[in-house]
Structures are given as C-alpha cells and as structure tokens.
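Comment thread on ticket #2218

A.B. wrote:
> Attaching the input chain for the structure job we discussed in standup.
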Amino acid sequence: MAVYPFFLPIDILSKGVINEPIQEVIPDAVACQYHIVWTLKYQYKILVGDIAMEINNGIRGFSEQLGCEVTELNIQNDHVHLLAMVPPKISI
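C.D. wrote:
> Ran it. Output below, let me know if you need it in another format.
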C-alpha cells in the first residue's frame, strides 16, 4: 500500500494523477474503520441458515441507513465479525 502525505496539492488530485478514491488516499481524514465482534451468550451455535441471512440483511440495512460502509461481514456459528467504515460524526 502506498503512503501519501496528509497534505496533497490540489492540482495533483484535480489532474487525476492519483486515480484512487479519497478514502484510500487519506483514510483517517474521511472515516474511521472499526472491527466489531458480537458473541452469543453461552456461545450457542445457532447463527446458521435463515438466522444468519436475517442478521446479514439487518446489519447491512442499518449500516446503509447510517451512511456506513460494510467492508467485511463474517457470520460464524456462534459469533459475528464486522469491519466497517464509519463517518466520524457517528458514535459507536
């Protein structure tokens, strides 16, 4: 991954020299990235089939309403991993 200085000249960005989204050029200036893990009480292995699909749809729908971007979502039998880009104005 290339490392860019926090202050890039405007003419470089406007000429299209850097063809990456601004989130990749200056990630900390645009959004915060969080890795969130949920576990079930007593670690029952029930997150399969329709339950897993409903959790997937719920997390993605709620994230979209808040303006967050789900980078990765992994639902295991007994826990859920979520990697999301969250705007700084939203508290976790």
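A.B. wrote:
> Thanks. Noting for the ticket: Confidence is low (pLDDT under 50) at residues 1-15.
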